Amino acid sequence: MKWIFFSGLAFLFVGCNGEPVSIMETTPYVETIPSHFPYMQVSTQNPTTNEGVALGRMLYYDNKLHPNQAMSCSQCHDQSNAFTDPVVNSLAHINIGWSSTFLWNGKVEGTLEDIMMFEVDEFFHTDLSVLNNDDEYPIRFERVFGVTTIESKHVAYALAQFFRTLNSYDSKYDRVLQGLETFTAAEANGYDIFFSERGDCFHCHGGALTTDNLMHNNGLDAMPDDGRFTITNNPADKGKFKTPTLRNIEYTSPYMHDGRYQTLEEVLTFYCWGLQDSPTIDPLMKNVGFPGGIDLNQQDFDDLISFLKTLSDESFLTNESLSDPF
Question: pTM value?
């Protein structure tokens, strides 16, 4: 068998018997997701393959997505910050293969393929001629998608395949759920507060994903920002923003859609004593009256933060298969 090695991927051209072997051969991507996670829907039009994931990973870290080659996805979604950015306050790229609503105001709804089409065409305005005239990309796209001309759809599909691998499920919280570890007394108390009416967190942040992937006005301001209203023009949507995942929350500051809080202590202080009533506040924010929140004592306050830190997944922050391939 003759092999040609190309940036770490082997492309078969001639078999042992002299017969050509199709460069369209791809291998299904396999990932074992813990049983306490929900099922992830994958588009039948875009099955995840090892080769597609590798291609999407390259695109994620490549400035060639930008028409002036000035930035990449990774510049606003740094792995060491759980794929977010402390300056631009971008939503973290964590477990979004389970999402159907994207961006803080929910501008894009649908599948990962839909949000990636938005990113390619409307956010980056990708110059496809750059990819089509590249030395590597046409070969890779032909192998993954069987195309000789790269179009926006193919770029979006490759990115979507990589995004389906940006999964965090190896935190202490997960290991406790699997019976592999136990909480400390402080963490256990924080867990009980989180998943009860004492803390009132679980309504929006419950389940393995720690987000309901919905839009809420969580009582930040008496005169809230427009939020979802900018998309729907429905006054009832003022102040509504997407619920972010709390996974790796220790590493994803600043917090809230406008990045107004820098620490978890500031966030929890708001939920304890700072809720602001407004016409569109979510009914789930039922502790909006005096003292304006859940009013935890100091021990419970500290223990809830201890629990939130069990959602940190250091392996996700250092996983080389998710890092810059260049």
Answer: 0.91
Residue 43's closest CA among 151, 156, 120, 206?
Answer: 156
Extract the tokens encoding 133. 């005239």
DSSP state of 14: E
Omega cis (within 30) before 20: no
How far apart CA 79 and CA 174 sit, in angstroms, is 20
CA 299 to chain centre: 32
Q: How many residues does the chain have?
A: 326
pLDDT in tens, the chain (326 residues): 323 222 333 333 333 334 443 446 899 999 999 999 999 999 999 999 999 999 999 999 999 999 999 999 999 999 999 999 999 899 999 999 999 999 999 999 999 999 999 999 999 999 999 999 999 999 999 999 999 999 999 999 999 999 999 999 999 999 999 999 999 999 999 999 999 999 999 999 999 999 999 999 999 999 999 999 999 999 999 999 999 999 999 999 999 999 999 999 999 999 999 999 999 999 999 888 767 889 899 999 999 999 999 999 999 999 999 999 99
The DSSP string of 193-247 is HHTSTTT--HHHH-TTTT----EE--S--SS---BTHHHH--GGGTTBEEPPP-T
- Partners of 109 in beta bridges: 101
Query: Which single residue is written with the structure tokens 């256990």?
Result: 188
Using the Cα atoms of residue 182, residue 183, residue 184 and residue 189 in order, give the sign of their dihedral: negative
Q: Helix (H, G, I), strand (E, B), or coil: what is residue 325?
A: coil
SS3 for 78-137 is EHHHCCECCCCCCCCCCCHHHCCEECCCCCEECCHHHHHHHHHHHHCCCCHHHHHCCCCH
